[in-house]
Amino acid sequence: MDRLAGPARLMIVSDLDHTMVDHHDPENLSLLRFNALWESNYRHDSLLVFSTGRSPTLYKELRKEKPLLTPDITIMSVGTEITYGELMAPDSGWERFLDRKWNRDIVVAESSKFPELKFQSASEQRPHKVSFYVQKDKAEAVMKSLNEILTIQGLDVKIIYSGGIDLDILPQGAGKGQALAYLLKKLKADQKLPLNTLACGDSGNDAELFSIPDVHGVMVSNAQEELLKWHAENARNNPKIFLANERCASGIIEAIGHFGLGPNISPRDVEDLSTCKTNNFNPGHELVLFYLLYERWRREEVEQSAATIETMKKITSHNGVLIHPFGVEHPLHECIDAFAMSYGDKKGKQFRVWLDRVSSTQVHPDAWLVKFDKWEMSDEGRRCCLTTVVLNTKKDTAEGLMLVHVHQTWMDGFAAQQNWFF
Ligand code: GLC
Ligand code: MG
């Protein structure tokens, strides 16, 4: 949250399963479209929040399976666990707040008496969340009587049904909506209230996200029955809630355009990348385009033209070097020559490249230090290189920039060395 000095231009608060992540899209194309848009146009001044029903364990599993970006804030277990930053530091104030009128043992004891309820796996049972599976036709009646029983026991709980199968019992003050409201309050107290917030979801536990004042909402086109029902009953005429025509992450991009929240064209949708420009020089934007061209060249999705290689040489300093993750140094122009030879080597194969955590510092009026994770996914699996680039802006040239130094380190290499200081 402290990454930005001031208020975020846009804060996206998105559910993961069937919203950010399309489990019916094996190539993850809509997610990769979103990633390219976010890193090129938003990462530097906006906040990305994931709000998932998953526990930390299942969330980490999803991150290994899918090309998810690193969010600034992660809200897990249906709004009962809030963590900040890459290291996922927990918000202990939120945990203490949720302890009010909550007694997990009573919830477990009472709900176990219902034969219709089947416990979810142990990883999904959390300090402020007890979760079951229940058949659709039984759900409503069970929720009603369980709520009555727990109220008699002096508890104030919230029971949520999602995905036509999952039933979560949480403290009344919890839930995705309450967690978002808490976050907004915190940001406001720090004078960092985002200029715009967009909540994105597909199922029952996301409904609350759409009830928070001053928040735009998008229900992706593949939204579940229970969410559409909630919308029809509670928010039919609310212009702040948009039902997208597109599925999952593509629906989120569509909503950015619908509400006019900022750039809504993913570089992945631009055929001629040389036409993809921003008003102000943004190193993240340039590097996303650079690696997209790299992907397309190797997939044989651009023409094999000498002009492309010439342009690449023009934007790399002739005496610049790339320090390869294997620990060898190559002149940048030699790397471009080798790259030229790789045309089409990934044709027809699984091969995608995406950037995450792009951050840039202007170290001189004409020079930037840019750091990011460069991911490559291929048939062999996926790998990440922590990459640092030094680039100069060249306002007087058509290309507008020159890379002078690239340094890469494998992120999946050796175990951390002890006593390694610099
Ligand atoms: C996720 C969680 C599960 C929860 C469901 C709905 O699938 O893993 O525990 O019930 O979201 O909130
Ligand atoms: Mg979902």
Question: Could you explain how this protein is built, in words?
Answer:
The chain has 422 residues and is of the alpha/beta class. It has three domains: 11-90 and 174-268, Rossmann fold (3-Layer(aba) Sandwich), CATH 3.40.50.1000; 101-171, Hypothetical Protein Ta0175, Chain: A, domain 2 (Alpha-Beta Complex); 270-410, Nuclear Transport Factor 2, Chain: A (Roll). It has eleven helices and 18 strands. It is elongated and about 75 Å long. The mean pLDDT is 95. Residues 15, 17-19, 202-203 line the site of magnesium ion.
Q: Supply the number of helical segments.
A: 11
Please, what is the CATH homologous superfamily of the largest domain?
Answer: HAD superfamily/HAD-like
Query: Helix share of residues?
Result: 25-40%
Helix/strand/pairing category: alpha/beta
Question: What characterizes the major β-sheet?
Answer: 8 strands, mixed
Mean pLDDT: 95
Describe the structure in brief:
With 422 residues, the protein is α/β, with parallel strands linked by helices. It is 30% helix and 26% strand. An 8-stranded mixed β-sheet has the order 5-4-3-2-1-10-11-12, sandwiched between helices. It has a 6-stranded mixed β-sheet with strand order 14-13-18-17-16-15.
Which terms would index this structure?
single chain, 422 residues, alpha/beta, Rossmann fold, Hypothetical Protein Ta0175, Chain: A, domain 2, Nuclear Transport Factor 2, Chain: A, 3 domains, eight-stranded mixed beta sheet, six-stranded mixed beta sheet, 11 helices, binds alpha-D-glucopyranose, binds magnesium ion
